[in-house]
């Protein structure tokens, strides 16, 4: 792999990682039903909920869409757990790609045959 | 004809591997870890199973089908609906089982197509077939434990199939139910079979590996992450739900089938019991004897040149098949150890010839110089 390919891959992985970080911050919302109703949040979250809701408002539909997928299959409780599952699997795929990119360097086997004594 | 087809399949398999190599490099090519993939899923099953075991209650008490009763179904319901991440762990346990069966079958296909299942490898093949049968049975017992409608019908179908067997059927049925009827003792037995047999897999894995010096036991982390991610995605796409609580006074007539584990029940429902047992037993026997389908040329085992061997152990360490044993040298020797070859394990591969620095080991029809030429040729070709 030449340097430009490596750079492109690095950028892709970086963007994916940043995306995961941002989206995974939805998890507190996911746990309480993926909604923007601040009053339903636990006390510890309410102090910063306003700020978080404003920041993540554009991402809320993603959480709602995820919730719809599992509720359509009969899930009624702990819906937020499934949001964790999606983001965790995404994070694992990105981690795997990152490890793969870094590890490519020593993938070539270096066999040296010595002279027989 | 059979061998010609195998050659073509071998060629196709290797071409696919080369293609995957271009994408993943040889370091992360899953084809090179085909045996380790099911084992990784076994660890996932152990870990997730441990959590489920902590909350599972193996009883069938269901007076008035009350959901307030503590029994197998309500404990599974608690795990699924109330316990944080319980549904996820349950889903992971279920789908890691499916994934294990898929990867075992891919592993079998790979060793079959690449001609790595016969001659000196027959122990690995036959023990592998036994492992597959065990995994399928353990998986089925997992379905009984949920104790919903499906569990009840599966239990009853199993009892019917066992009752059909002459002489041994009745005692096995008694063992299976832990009595003559379905009771709390039955559920304890199911749990014991499910967990006890799962751990006995480790003993059979030992037999599976015993003739290999350096078996690949774990895929690299990059592949492990993908394996877990796949299971998690399936958990999300197909969340796990239980059916209705089993009612011993009611006979369910249909159930959703998991083709990886429950296909014998599908067959049982389609044909009469005699044909079912014939098909199942014939299937297992046919798979077991696959290594003897082809008449193989006897292997010419390596021979140690006793007066040249220094007992350095290099051949012992390099042999991939544990076919060389270091024994005390005879009193007349000035060295402490002497290499000896176990002919029934030797594959005649010539690795020991390449390892020996003293020309003290030979493979008939494969002289020392020829082995080195072959190795140099291979290295030159890559």
List the defining traits of the structure above:
heterodimer, A: 117 residues, mainly alpha, 5 helices, 0% strand, elongated, B: 382 residues, Alpha-Beta Plaits, 2 domains, two-stranded antiparallel ribbon, 4% strand
Helices and strands, with pairings:
The complex is a heterodimer of chains A (117) and B (382).
Chain A: H1 3-24, H2 27-31, H3 43-56, H4 60-71, H5 79-103
Helix pairs in contact in A: 1-5, 4-5
Chain B: H1 2-24, H2 36-55, H3 72-81, H4 86-113, H5 122-145, H6 149-164, H7 169-177, H8 184-209, H9 221-237, H10 263-270, H11 273-288, E1 303-304, H12 314-318, E2 324-328, E3 337-341, H13 351-355, E4 361-362, H14 368-381
Antiparallel strand pairs in B: 1-4, 2-3
Helix pairs in contact in B: 2-4, 3-4, 4-5, 4-9, 5-8, 6-7
Task: Give your account of this protein's structure.
- The complex is a heterodimer of chains A (about 120) and B (about 375).
- Chain A has about 120 residues and is mainly alpha-helical.
- In chain A, about 65% of the residues lie in helices and about 0% in strands.
- Chain A has one domain.
- Chain B has helices spanning about 1-25, 35-55, 70-80, 85-115, 120-145, 150-165, 170-175, 185-210, 220-235, 265-270, 275-290, 315-320, 350-355, 370-380; strands at about 305, 325-330, 335-340, 360.
- Chain B is mainly alpha-helical and about 375 residues long.
- In chain B, helix 3 packs across helix 4, helix 4 (about 85-115) packs antiparallel against helix 5 (about 120-145) and helix 5 runs antiparallel to helix 8 (about 185-210).
Uncertain spans of chain A: none
Highest CATH level, the class of the largest domain in chain B: Mainly Alpha
Strand content range of chain A: under 5%
Oligomer: heterodimer
The separation of the N and C termini of chain B measures: 31 Å
Number of helices of chain B: 14
Principal-axes shape call of chain A: elongated
The coarse silhouette of chain B is elongated
Helical segment tally of chain A? 5
Radius of gyration of chain B: 26 Å
Largest sheet of chain A: none
Number of structural units classed as domains of chain A: 1
Main beta-sheet annotation of chain B: 2 strands, antiparallel
Largest interface: chains, residues each: A-B, 33 and 34 residues
Amount of helix of chain B: 55-70%
Radius of gyration of CA atoms of chain A, rounded to a whole number? 21 Å
Major beta sheet, strand line-up of chain B: 1-4
Q: What letter string, H or E per element, gives the SSE order of chain B?
A: HHHHHHHHHHHEHEEHEH
């Amino acid at each position: 792999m030449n340097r430009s390919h490596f750079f492109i891959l690095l950028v892709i992985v970086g963007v994916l990682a940043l995306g995961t970080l941002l989206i995974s911050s939805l998890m507190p919302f996911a746990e309480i039903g993926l909604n923007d109703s601040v009053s339903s949040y636990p006390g510890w979250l309410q102090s910063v909920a306003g700020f978080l809701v404003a920041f993540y408002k554009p991402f809320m539909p993603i959480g709602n869409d995820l919730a719809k997928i599992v509720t359509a299959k009969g899930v009624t409780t702990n819906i937020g757990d499934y949001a964790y599952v999606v983001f965790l699997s995404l994070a694992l795929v990105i981690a795997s790609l990152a490890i793969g990119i870094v590890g490519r360097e020593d993938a070539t086997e270096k066999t040296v045959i010595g002279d027989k004594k | 004809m059979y061998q010609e087809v195998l050659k073509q399949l071998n060629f196709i398999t290797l071409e696919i591997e080369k293609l995957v190599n271009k994408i993943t490099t040889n370091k992360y090519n899953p084809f090179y870890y085909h045996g380790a993939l099911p084992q990784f899923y076994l660890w996932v099953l152990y870990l997730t199973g441990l959590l489920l075991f902590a909350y599972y209650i193996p009883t069938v008490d269901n007076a008035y089908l009350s959901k307030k009763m503590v029994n197998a179904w309500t404990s599974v319901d608690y795990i699924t609906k109330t316990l944080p991440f319980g549904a996820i762990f349950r889903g992971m346990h279920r789908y890691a089982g499916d994934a294990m069966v898929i990867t075992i079958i891919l592993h079998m296909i790979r060793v079959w197509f690449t001609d790595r299942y016969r001659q000196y490898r027959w122990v690995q093949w036959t023990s592998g077939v036994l492992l597959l049968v065990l995994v399928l049975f353990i998986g089925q017992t997992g379905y009984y434990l949920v104790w919903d409608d499906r569990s009840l019908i599966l239990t009853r179908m199993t009892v019917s199939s066992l009752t059909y067997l002459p002489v041994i059927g009745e005692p096995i049925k008694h063992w299976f139910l832990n009595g003559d009827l379905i009771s709390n003792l039955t559920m304890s037995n199911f749990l014991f079979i499910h967990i006890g047999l799962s751990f006995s897999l480790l003993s059979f894995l030992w037999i599976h590996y015993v003739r290999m010096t350096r078996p690949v036991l774990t895929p690299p982390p990059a592949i492990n992450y993908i394996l877990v991610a796949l299971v998690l995605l399936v958990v999300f796409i197909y969340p796990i739900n239980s059916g209705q609580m089993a009612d011993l006074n009611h006979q369910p007539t249909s159930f959703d089938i998991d083709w990886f584990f429950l296909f014998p029940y599908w067959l049982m429902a389609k044909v009469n019991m005699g044909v079912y047992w014939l098909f199942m037993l014939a299937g297992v026997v046919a798979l077991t004897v696959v290594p003897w389908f082809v008449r193989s040329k006897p292997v010419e085992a390596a021979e140690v040149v006793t007066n040249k061997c220094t007992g350095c152990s290099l051949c012992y360490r390099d042999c991939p098949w544990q076919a060389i044993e270091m024994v005390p040298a005879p009193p007349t020797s000035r060295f402490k150890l002497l290499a000896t070859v176990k002919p029934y394990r030797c594959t005649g591969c010539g690795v020991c010839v390449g390892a020996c620095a003293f020309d003290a080991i030979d493979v008939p029809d494969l002289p020392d110089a020829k082995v080195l030429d072959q190795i140099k040729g291979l290295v030159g070709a890559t």
